[in-house]
Each structure stands twice: as C-alpha cells, then as structure tokens.
Amino acid sequence: MPQLARRMGQAKPSAIMVIAEKTRALKAQGRDIISFSIGVPNFLPGEHVYAAARAALEKDSGQYGSNRGADALLDAMLAHFERNGIAGLTRRNLCVGIGAKQVLYNLAEALLDPGDTIAFPTPFWTTYADIAAIVGAKTLLLPCPPEQDYKLTPAQLDAALAQKPKVFLFNNPSNPTGMVYHREEIAALAAVMARHADTWIVLDDIYNRMVFDEVGYHNVLAFEPSLRDRTIVVDSLSKTYGMPGWRVGFAAAPEHVAQAMVTLNSNHITSLPEVVSAAAAAALAGPQDIPAAQCAGFARKRDVVLAALAQIPGVRCPRPEGAFYAFPDVSVAFGRTHGPSGRLIGNDVELCEALLESAGVACVPGSAFGEPRALRISYACPDAALAEGLARIQKFFAEFE
Ligand SMILES: Cc1ncc(COP(=O)(O)O)c(C=O)c1O
C-alpha cells in the first residue's frame, strides 16, 4: 500500500477549524450556538470594492496574471506600506499570495531548510507551528505567559536570537491575545534584533489597522533601518477590509526574498484572479472609512468583553489593545466540577467542550495557541450575540462547585 509523504505525519488540521466544525455540527442539530471561535471580521467591504470587482469582471481577460501581483495592486500596496511608515520600497520588494497564510507558507519554503529553527513567542497563531512542521523546521518557542501580559521581553528575545534561529517570527497585534506592542517596546526589541545579524525577521502584522487606545502601530524598521536587508513584513486584506474570503495576502521583503516568493507562486498558484486583484487594489487605495469605523467598534466591544470577564472571580484577562480577540486565563476552573453537567474540568479543552455543550458558546482552547491556561474569545460578532454569549459565560462560571 503506498503511504503518504512523511511530512504529512507532522501536519494536522488547524485546531480552530476543528472547533468551527463541531460548532457547525451542533448548529445543524438545531442548537442555539454563539460562536466566539473563528477569527472572521463580520463586516463587508465598501461598495467601491464591489464596483471595482464588477468593472474588472466586465473586461476580464480570463488570462493568467503576474506571479508577483498586478501592477495596480502592487502600487496600492506600496502606498499602504508608506502610510505604515515603510517607505522607499519598489514593486520588486513585493509579492502577493492567496491570503497571508499562503504568503507565510511561501516564506517558510523560501527561508527554511529541513532541520532549521524558527523561533516565535507563545501564545502564537496556530498555523505557525503547523507550517513549521510541514517544512520540517524545528520550533523554538518563547513563552510569554499572562503574568507578563503575553508580551516578549527584550531579554527573552536576546537569549533566543543568541541561539541563531534561522527565522524569528513576530506577530503584532497578536492573534490570539490582542496584545499590541507600544512604541518603546518595539524600539527595544528592534535594538536586540539589530545585534543578531544571522536571523531573518518575519513580521506578521496583518492586524496593523486594528489598534486601539491611540497606541498606534509601530514597526521595527522605523527604529532600525539596518534590519531592512533581512526583514519581511506580511500583511493581508482579510481582517482590515472584511475580505477573508477574497484571499489576498502580501509581503514586503528584500528583493531576492520577494523574488523567491514570486518563483514559488509561479509553481504553486500562478497568480491572483484579475477580479480579486482589482477589488484588492480598490480596498487598499480607496476610502478607509470602513476599516476606521470597524476599529472603533472593536475597541468598544473589547471594553464590553473586559467588563464582563472582570466580573468572573479568578478569571484574569490582560487588556487587549488591538485585533478582535481576548485571551483570558481561565485556569481557575481547572480541577473543579461544573454543577449542571457534572463534568470535572481538567484542562482548557475540557472547559471549551463543556462551555460549548452546556452553555452553547464556542471558544478556542488556549492550548491550540501554546497557552493551555487560557481560551480565546473572538468578539467580532454583532452586539446582541456578544452580550448574550458573555452572559452565558458568566453563568457557566458561576455554576462551578
Ligand atoms: C496572525 C495571523 N496571521 C495570518 C492570518 C492569515 O490570514 P489570511 O490568510 O486570511 O490573509 C491570520 C488569520 O487568522 C492571523 O490571525
């Protein structure tokens, strides 16, 4: 019997998708489930995006496009990076992908040989570990527990980079914690990165337009321009513009890295569809009022989530300042019995299962992100569902014996 390739022994389906499947199955049985599990932005792009897509459809050539990305889209990306403080790039520094996920996959293939090490802080977005496993890279995890607000310290980074990992992957604002590094924190991390010249720096900054409390989005390149030669900035339209299903991700990189991704695209995906490219260019270059309004809305919802969690004894939630996630430490429930279901809760997975089955609220266990004391609440849902889901969570925790 022929076998699957050895690399598939390492790969597993995304834990977030597993919860989403379970939620869908319960919903199909007619159960009333509130989903705080999947990271979808829950709003639609502006009319100008659809108009651009319709216009492109009218004159769609039906041909393959550029492996790097359509010119108009690349130019919109250049302007976008410039607005984010990353100036001086040219089209040759850019490359698109089918979402940031494929861009990250391309980067893993372009930068990591089997046995190389990729370092990243925990909690981490689940896919990082899975992509590393598929390309046969070792992972060096840098634990950032709730006691340090889930943030990496310069000393931790220094110790990690001293081990010369091939790649350091940094996500800011963070999925799953919603934490955002402040200006001085980024400056301190940048200084450490500059001291360790043997490591590629990959910045997954796809939530850069979702930062609250006037903290602002900051980027190591602004503090250490010397990092330009070995830093790749990954971005995406999925969350910012309410376009997850359009599948547009992109990266700014040193020319030869961008070219490597273009080569991989030429063998993996060829190009983005013309209609998608036109819509993406319109989103990036057009009015930014929808992302701005959504960001303000998420900040308001964040306050609602924190206020509700603060009322649950023993649950502690470092204050998120971006994205649309909260990541409370719920370990207070471990080792205790949930009265109505009679379930003894041993860990985060059992807690999320009990919460889903008894209270009808879907959250993702923190262990999926490398922090088993927590669970992730994705709060990008309508206000009424958010209030109901939070009330159910409060009731669920009050029912412990
Ligand atoms: C931190 C982070 N990076 C990358 C992605 C991938 O985004 P997409 O492939 O939709 O562009 C996600 C999606 O949830 C994410 O949270």
From TrEMBL:
InterPro entries: Aminotransferase_I/II_large, AspAT/PAT-like, NHTrfase_class1_PyrdxlP-BS, PyrdxlP-dep_Trfase, PyrdxlP-dep_Trfase_major, PyrdxlP-dep_Trfase_small. Coiled coil: none annotated. Keywords: Aminotransferase, Pyridoxal phosphate, Transferase. SUPFAM superfamilies: PLP-dependent transferases. GO terms for biological process: amino acid metabolic process. Pfam families: Aminotran_1_2. GO terms for molecular function: pyridoxal phosphate binding; transaminase activity. It comes from the Bacteria. PANTHER family: ASPARTATE AMINOTRANSFERASE (PTHR46383:SF1). This is Aminotransferase. Its EC number is 2.6.1.-. The keyword Transmembrane does not apply. Residues 32-393 form the Aminotransferase class I/classII large domain. Its cofactor is pyridoxal 5'-phosphate. Belongs to the class-I pyridoxal-phosphate-dependent aminotransferase family. It comes from Denitratimonas tolerans.
